[in-house]
Design a protein that fits this description.
This protein is an alpha+beta fold. The chain contains 21 helices and 29 strands. It folds into 3 domains: about 1-200, no CATH class; about 215-595, Alkaline Phosphatase, subunit A, CATH 3.40.720.10; about 605-740, Jelly Rolls, CATH 2.60.120.260. Strand 15 (about 540-545) and strand 16 (about 550) form a beta hairpin. Helix 3 runs antiparallel to helix 7, helix 4 (about 65-90) packs antiparallel against helix 6 (about 120-140) and helix 12 crosses helix 19 (about 425-445).
């Protein structure tokens, strides 16, 4: 009945003299609103944003020639589709820097081809455009009624209402819940203009250097929880891919979180037996950044700049301060094991460089998977293999440190069919599957007596977030199981984060941490709060340690809240600001970004190695099948990037086929190279090319992909970014690691 009524209304609308207006407004409003409802982004401000944008575009395009309005509607449709796809893929909206991809044939082809997460949205946009064109064609030559004289006031009022609500009662929801893409771009431009006006009104106010000691110092002045060094002989550090702190029941209870889903009951039961730190901050997204922070006692970049783990390859001093290197100096055998290949994000180079004696990935495992997963081992198979690895370490006389990294809860998420049937989403199913894998692993460690002489720390590399849970993208967890558990509290008070993990482990053993480490010890109580920062989901957050949390968003506006700690279920909004105070927050982040290197210029990164890499018959995934670790690099404005690589066939009987792709913020960038390049046993592939960076590039990744029946050796993959005219000054690398020119 409702469907028939809707059809009748549409027909009546299309037969009306205002049919072109009806078709245009329907396309611009009904499709995005319907998509918002279907995708679960049902925030009132989001619907208001859709209504405001639809009103504004309708006023601008109504009664315009079809050939003038059509390109605008095509771009709008593509932006709508791209926004939904990018949120589904990586949990963020596009930004202004992404807009140039609309003129990139490769990107447009990929975006409108197969593999879309929401093909129904593309179909709805296409049908809406076709309907609008049909109405335009039928009414061609007719004089359309004019809109009321003050119709332009409607979008202005709606935008002002949206901005006023955001100002008076800021929402903690994600950006895509509150804005559509055109509105977000308009809000960004308005925010930047407002800041410029505020700067002008402030005049020549001197910008004093911000104090960084509270963020960078090593603080071991707290009261120790243990009377002396810990009794454990070994260290086991387990990093669970993407798991937020809200999944651990003691954390939810301690912070009185409204989140109630109990996806990890096994791990929560173990958490009841250990020391939990509910207010535990993850400083950034991406595995390599989380691993660097926890293993090297330093903030990684609080933006999308080159990960510090990669920058660390340019020097041979700060890497000796990282936890594996320090434990190795104290006689530990240090091991790293992950369930995926090592080349992605250059972990095959970074992990040995920071002190791991043995670094293993997917190639180490001999046990079969329980299900197919593009990144590598499913979690059950991974922990079964990890248990064997621990068994081998137990046979050694030396104390050991083992770091484990799972991958099953990384998108596209890995779970058997039985789990997928039990849960609403693949993410939930994958989390439950991980819980059922780590539970038996910990049980086995206990049966084998490992927990009696091993300090076990379970945490996550990053957080994949939870819709509707405040700060979930920054909310991590730290579960510590120690032989002297009776002396440790069940709930550790205070604010801590990944930057504290290295100092905490060294403090447990009574070792003197390197002076270049940052952070506090989880094994101490502190009378005063501390400064701490994070950058997740496009928001920069800073807690001053004195009860104020500040959050700066894409509009370059900072809101501040009364919050005793960093992670909390709710906080009291106090006000907002821009201008000098906002720049001071950014200056702190920029200061932390430069603790390792002052500039991304004049660095020669070498991602090649003598390793023999077996090829697959076909390329399945641009990320998981990458042959090199040159991901998420930063290239300053006005610089020139030179790339040189050599690929050799390692099989005298087989040819190989090689592709090189560039991606910026996960979106394809044309490099002007052939789609496919042949490597024969007699003729290696050697290339040397450059490209300019007229605007800053961040999160730029190279994807060297290959397929065939043989194997290859990527003996050289050099990336050099420098200012034009300085090309001849760059030095050649001296070894397999990156070198500073």
């Amino acid at each position: 009945m409702t469907g028939r009524l809707s059809v009748k209304l549409i027909r009546r609308c299309l037969q009306h003299p205002l049919a072109p207006l009806c078709a245009l407004f329907g396309l611009l409003l009904l499709v995005p609103m319907g998509a918002r409802l279907a995708l679960g982004w049902s925030n009132p401000l989001g619907y208001l944003s859709d209504l405001a944008s639809a009103s504004l575009l309708t006023v601008l395009l109504y009664r315009r020639p079809w050939w003038l309005a059509l390109p605008v509607l095509l771009v709008w449709s593509l932006l709508t589709l791209v926004s939904a796809e990018l949120v589904s893929a990586v949990g963020r909206m596009p930004n202004i820097a992404d807009l140039h991809y609309l003129v990139d044939p490769q990107f447009v082809g990929n975006s409108t081809g197969g593999g879309l997460a929401h093909p129904w949205l593309g179909l709805a946009l296409l049908l809406g455009l076709a309907l609008w064109l049909g109405v335009q064609r039928r009414g061609r030559g007719a004089q359309l009624p004019a809109l009321p004289r003050h119709s332009w006031a409607a979008p202005v009022v709606l935008l002002l209402v949206h901005g006023t609500v955001q100002y008076l009662k800021p929402s903690d929801a994600d950006q895509w819940q509150l804005f559509n893409l055109p509105h977000q771009a308009l809000a960004t431009a308005t925010g930047q203009a407002q800041i410029q006006v505020e700067d002008w009104l402030e005049g020549d106010v001197p910008e004093l250097p911000v104090q960084m000691a509270g963020l960078t110092q090593l603080d071991l002045d707290g009261e120790p929880l243990l009377a002396g060094p810990g009794q454990a002989r070994n260290v086991l550090l387990i990093a669970l891919e993407g798991i937020p702190g809200a999944y651990i029941q003691p954390n939810r209870e301690a912070l009185r979180s409204h989140y109630r889903e109990n996806l990890m009951p096994r791990l929560s039961a173990w958490a009841e037996r250990g020391m939990n730190t509910p207010d535990y901050v993850l400083h950034s997204h991406q595995t390599i950044r989380g691993l660097y922070a926890m293993l090297c006692g330093d903030y990684d970049k609080l933006d999308n700049g080159t990960p510090k783990g990669i920058e660390l390859l340019t020097q041979n001093q700060r890497n000796q301060a990282c936890l594996p290197a320090q434990l190795r100096q104290h006689g530990f055998a240090t091991h790293y094991l992950q369930g995926a290949g090592l080349r992605f994000m250059a972990k095959d180079k970074i992990m040995p460089h920071i002190g791991f004696d043995a670094t293993h990935g997917l190639e180490w495992f001999s046990n079969a998977n329980y299900l197919e997963f593009p990144w590598g081992k499913d979690d059950k198979a991974f922990f079964e293999g990890a248990l064997d690895y621990v068994g081998q370490l137990k046979k050694q006389k030396k104390p050991w440190m083992l770091t484990l990294l799972t991958v099953g809860t990384h998108q596209p998420y890995s779970a058997p069919e039985a789990y997928l049937e039990r849960f609403d989403t693949p993410k939930q199913a994958a989390v439950a599957y991980l819980d059922d894998a780590i539970g038996p692993f910990l049980d086995a460690l206990e049966r084998q007596g490992v927990l009696k002489d091993t300090l076990v720390i379970i945490t996550s590399d990053e957080s994949h977030g939870i819709d509707g849970v405040r700060l979930a993208s920054s909310w991590g967890f730290n579960l510590m199981l120690a032989p002297e558990q009776a002396q440790l509290p069940k709930i550790k008070s205070g604010t801590y984060g990944h930057v504290d993990l290295s100092a905490s482990v060294l403090d447990y053993f009574g070792f003197e941490p390197a002076a270049s480490l940052s952070g506090r010890s989880l094994l101490r109580d502190y009378a005063l709060g501390r400064e701490i920062m994070s950058y997740t989901n496009g928001k920069l957050r800073y807690h001053d340690g004195q009860g104020t949390l500040t959050e700066c968003d894409f509009q370059q506006r900072c809101r501040y809240y009364s919050s005793p700690g960093f992670i909390a279920d709710s906080a009291t909004f106090k006000g907002q600001y821009g201008g000098l105070r906002a720049r001071q927050i950014s200056a702190r982040a920029e200061g932390l970004d430069r603790t390792l290197l002052q500039s991304p210029l004049n660095l020669h990164y070498q991602f090649g190695s003598p390793a023999i890499i077996p090829l697959q018959a076909q390329i399945k995934d641009d990320w998981a099948d990458n042959l090199i670790g040159a991901q998420y690099l930063e290239m300053p404005k006005g610089s020139l990037t030179r790339v040189r690589f050599t690929v050799r066939s390692a099989d005298p009987q087989q040819n190989a086929y090689i592709l090189l792709k560039g991606k910026e913020r996960e979106q394809d960038v044309a490099l002007g190279l052939p789609d496919e390049m042949l490597v024969t046993p007699d003729q290696p592939l050697e290339m040397d090319f450059s490209f300019a960076n007229p605007e800053p590039r961040k999160a730029f990744s190279f994807h060297l992909l290959g397929y065939g029946l043989g194997a290859v050796e990527v003996s050289d993959f050099s990336v050099i970014t420098e200012l034009p005219g300085q090309e001849e000054t760059s030095e050649e690398p001296q070894d397999d690691n990156a070198q500073s020119s």
